């Protein structure tokens, strides 16, 4: 569709004859005929008069016109040139917005995926520490593991003391476990009622956490959304 064909289309749609439209627009019928046959381009003033006579606005007038094929012709009318310039500016802003949003989605997606896969934010390692019992205030921290080395086992008296101490330590034995997400070292002390407990690292194990899997899933979704945004931007820029 060209400018001339569009004038003719709206004239026919409103049941105007050429003389009637020419009179309403304040131009000669012969000049209107030239316009409809694309043998002339209306001035901006005449273009406005035609739009007023046809009761259409600039946007409605150019809607059916192939802008890419007729851009040089359209730009000769200042009102249309200004409208196309505004549309190009809005298109550029939309494309830039797509790029910003798409870039942000890709960065956020990669960050979430890395966070979930590396398990740095939500650690899946569990450290279990074991304490054999409560050491008294005046006893060594490792009394439950070292008491045998501190006994004199020579002679009958020594053996009796060993048996008595073994019975005492067996009665005092009260195994307790603590589980931590962070590494506390191979051993640490903790004050408790009646004395203190010496905890030593018993084992560490990996316990999967669903949140890490969800972070990876959301990361992939955001990454794909960002890539799709770039694809849409390319399509918009070609229009």
Automatic annotation (TrEMBL):
Gene3D superfamilies: lambda repressor-like DNA-binding domains. Residues 7-61 form the HTH cro/C1-type domain. CDD domains: HTH_XRE. The chain crosses the membrane at residues 98-116, 213-232. GO terms for cellular component: cytosol. The keyword Isomerase does not apply. InterPro entries: Cro/C1-type_HTH, Lambda_DNA-bd_dom_sf, TransReg_Diox_bact_type. Pfam families: HTH_3. GO terms for molecular function: DNA binding; DNA-binding transcription factor activity. The keyword Transmembrane helix applies. Keywords: DNA-binding, Membrane, Transmembrane, Transmembrane helix. PANTHER family: HTH-TYPE TRANSCRIPTIONAL REGULATOR (PTHR46797), METHYLPHOSPHONATE SYNTHASE (PTHR46797:SF1). This is Transcriptional regulator, XRE family.
């Amino acid at each position: 569709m060209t400018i001339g064909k569009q004038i003719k289309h709206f004239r026919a749609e409103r049941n105007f004859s050429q003389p009637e439209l020419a009179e309403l627009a304040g131009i000669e019928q012969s000049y209107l005929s030239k316009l409809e046959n694309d043998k002339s381009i209306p001035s901006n003033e005449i273009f406005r008069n035609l739009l007023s006579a046809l009761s259409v606005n600039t946007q409605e007038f150019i809607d059916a016109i192939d802008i890419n094929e007729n851009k040089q012709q359209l730009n000769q009318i200042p009102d249309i040139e200004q409208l196309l310039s505004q549309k190009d500016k809005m298109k550029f802003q939309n494309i830039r917005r797509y790029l910003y949003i798409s870039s942000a989605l890709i960065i956020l997606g990669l960050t979430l995926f890395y966070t979930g896969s590396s398990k740095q934010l939500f650690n899946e390692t569990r450290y279990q520490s074991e304490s054999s019992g409560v050491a008294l205030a005046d006893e060594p921290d490792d009394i439950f593991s070292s008491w045998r080395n501190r006994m004199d086992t020579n002679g009958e008296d020594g053996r009796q003391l060993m048996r008595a101490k073994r019975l005492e330590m067996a009665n005092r034995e009260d195994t307790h476990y603590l589980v931590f997400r962070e590494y506390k070292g191979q051993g640490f002390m903790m004050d408790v009622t009646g004395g203190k407990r010496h905890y030593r690292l018993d084992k560490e194990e990996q316990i999967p956490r669903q949140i890490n899997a969800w972070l990876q899933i959301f990361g992939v979704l955001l990454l794909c959304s960002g890539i799709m945004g770039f694809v849409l931007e390319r399509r918009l820029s070609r229009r």
